[in-house]
Amino acid sequence: MDIGRFEVRERPVANAGVRMTSTAPHRELIRVGVVGLSASGGWAATAHVPALAGLDGYELRALSAGSAESARAAGEKYAVPLAFASAEELARSEEVDLVVVTVKVPHHLELIRPALEAGKMVFSEWPLGADLAQAEELADLAHRRGVLTAVGLQARSAPPLRYLRDLVAEGYVGRVLSTSMLGSGWIGGATYDDNYAYVLDATSGATLLSIPFGHSVDALTMVLGEFREVSALVENLRPEVTNVTSGAVAAKSAEDQIAVTGVLESGAVAAMHFRGGTSRATAFHWEINGTEGDLVVKADRAQWWYGGTQLYGARGEEGALTELPVPARYQRSLTQWTGRSAEPACSVAHEYALLRDQIIGSLAPDEDGVPDFRHAVRRHAMLERVREAARAGRKVTLAEQGA
Question: Residue 263, CB half-sphere, CA atoms under 13 Å: how many?
């Protein structure tokens, strides 16, 4: 069948379990306070500030940094009216509706907790916590406070992934038989720099399993459904790594090789292999194979969930894969990002747009919102089961604990 005749309609995220209702009063603008916005750069400056710029419904109203001086410098650089020396002060401000936490994972618990206690909506980058226990603590607190939460699993909001989900749901490949994913980790390579020294520690919560694999397996389950059972290898084959500046050798306890095989709830067979560092061969390649066709997602960088993915497919009598352009309706009217899908802020902007529509109550009747803290707990729990499967050297059933 010609892809031009294969029509899909946008559907809610499969198995997301993340529908939420805002308890916050509706205002003309959602006033955002960013924890961790620095004048020297970082993820907030690279992705969140550009994502919010020009996005209807938001105002970047406040920020906090590690000191009053650094907060003032960031406020001046990004033209943010309110600059606070601590996350606690920002959370108490009556001029902030949504607190966005973009700091390193080991600090999430201490910086998210004050915002939840203040009754503020919270958007935390993924991973939510350094481990499952921290994620559960934050999700429980959010539930008790009755506040809306969001977690930065941006692939779920990215137009190519939503289109991919709908192609599969509408039968482009027929019945899904198998899926395979090969990725590079970015972290977990032979070298490191000072800013990322913390990722060498397996207990930091920022590892190959939690970040590259975590983002990727969440995308896979969005499109194809959850795993029913998994077997896994999680290995640290580079216990010593080199500092790119000083040449000093440091010990590394975090993993740098992950191989997971399993069966999805649909019965399809799945295989995922993630390697630490970067690859000269394949940065990211994901296949979905079915009874009627095949779909492929490719990217030229390890952090593929930020954007810049290409989607290919072939079905029926078609002999070769062809690129499948994403229909304009998946852009949520974010025309400023047309042709800029490779920029890290692109997927973040789409998540903010979806979150905005959720907050103001303008989601379509059958549309799910962004993943929340409860969803983050589910994903953390799944990753713990992967580690358990690797430690035990046996197949683990995820349904045993609801992962």
Answer: 9
CA 403, 252, 136 angle in degrees (round to 5)? 25
Half-sphere exposure of 76 (CA within 13 A, CB side): 7
List beta partners, residue 270.
Answer: 179, 262
Look at the block and give the residue holding tokens 């969140």.
48
Q: What integer is the mean pLDDT of 187-192?
A: 96
Bridge partners of 314, per DSSP, are 294
The pLDDT assigned to 2 comes to 43
Provide CB contacts within 8 A for 271, sequence distance 6+: 178, 179, 180, 181, 259, 260, 261
Angle value at C-alpha 262, between 215 and 179, nearest 5 degrees: 65
Mean pLDDT, range 158-176, rounded to an integer: 97
Q: Which amino acid is at 149?
A: T
pLDDT score of 154 more than 80: yes
Domains of the chain: 30-147 (3.40.50.720), 155-327+373-392 (3.30.360.10)
**Residue 377: what residue type?**
V
Residue 27 has pLDDT above 70, yes or no: no
pLDDT tens column, 101-133: 999 999 999 999 999 999 999 999 999 999 999
Report the 3 state secondary structure along the chain: CCHHHCCCCCCCCCCCCCCCCCCCCCCCCEEEEEECCECCECHHHHHHHHHHCCCCCEEEEEEECCCHHHHHHHHHHHCCCEEECCHHHHHHCCCCCEEEECCCHHHHHHHHHHHHHCCCEEEEECCCCCCHHHHHHHHHHHHHHCCCEEEECHHHHCHHHHHHHHHHHCCCCCCEEEEEEEEECCCCCCEECHHHHHHHCHHHCCCCHHHHHHHHHHHHHHHHCCEEEEEEEEECCCCEEEECCCCCEEECCCCCEEEEEEEECCCCEEEEEEECCCCCCCCEEEEEEECCEEEEEEECCCCHHHCCCEEEEEECCCCCCEECCCCHHHHCCCHHHCCCCCCCHHHHHHHHHHHHHHHCCCCCCCCCCCCCHHHHHHHHHHHHHHHHHHHHCCCEEHHHCCC
- Cα separation of 14 and 77, whole Å? 41
- pLDDT value at 22 more than 90: no
What is the per-residue pLDDT for 139? Answer: 99
- Using CA of residue 259, residue 263, residue 264, residue 268, what is the dihedral sign? positive
